[in-house]
Each structure stands twice: as C-alpha cells, then as structure tokens.
Amino acid sequence: MSPIIWAFGGALALHLVRRPRRTRPSDVLATPPIPPQQAQLTPGVVAVHGELMNNCIDPQKLTRGAALFGHEGLPMQAQALLGKAQMIHEMMHGAKSIVERCRAGDQHAMAMAQGIGEQARAGNQRAQISAFLIEEYTKKNPAPQVAQAA
Does the global pTM surpass 0.85? Predict the structure, then answer.
C-alpha cells in the first residue's frame, strides 16, 4: 500500500510543478522587462490599444491584453484594461441575476431589464453591453420548461 501512496504523491507533485502558471491581476503590473523610462507611448501603440480593446467585452482577453501592456512598460493602459475587465465581469454577474430574478417573477428586475433595453436603444454604450450580456445569458441558459396542467 505504501508504494502506491508514494507513486500517487510523486505524480501529484509532478503535476503541480509542470502545470502552466495562471496570470493574476497582481502579476500584470509587476516589474516590466524594460524600464518605464525607456518605453515610449508611440501613436502606433495608442492605435493598437484603441482598436483592439475598445470594443472588447471578454474579461479574459482584457486581462491578457493588460498583461501585455504591463510588460511593455505601459502601466496606465494595463490598469485601465484591468478595470474594464472587472467591470465587465461584474456586469456578467448582474445580467445573470436580472435574468434569474425575471424568471422568478420579480417585477423590479423586469423593470430594470426594460430600462436597460430602452437605454440601449437610445445609444448608451454601457446599457448596450448589459443588454448584450443579458441576451447571451438567456440564450446559453434557456428557461426550464414548466409542465402545464391539462
């Protein structure tokens, strides 16, 4: 029995040592490979930042982008992307909450969903993102079918 335990422990230790390291938000703003004084915010870098991340609503992609900008010596842009990723993550949980509460019959949640829809149609960018997230959650998690009495 003891050799089996040793083999299992060795396999577990090997797995933990070789698994890929996940990027944490605190790692993103760690010391960049080049000093910030040498990093230059060129118009090209600004254009890439604006084009790639402006319309992105994927928190994981935003976090990876923040890591890239952090390592390029652009901590302000990295912090902005981390803030946006956190905001989108919170909006995803809010969308889930609104949908589930609407399905439960909460009229306040129904009014919030209607208000979000009206604001989205009026052109509010944050409301458009919220409406999109609500729609995506509804598509991915359809309401359970209720058996009707005959």
Answer: no
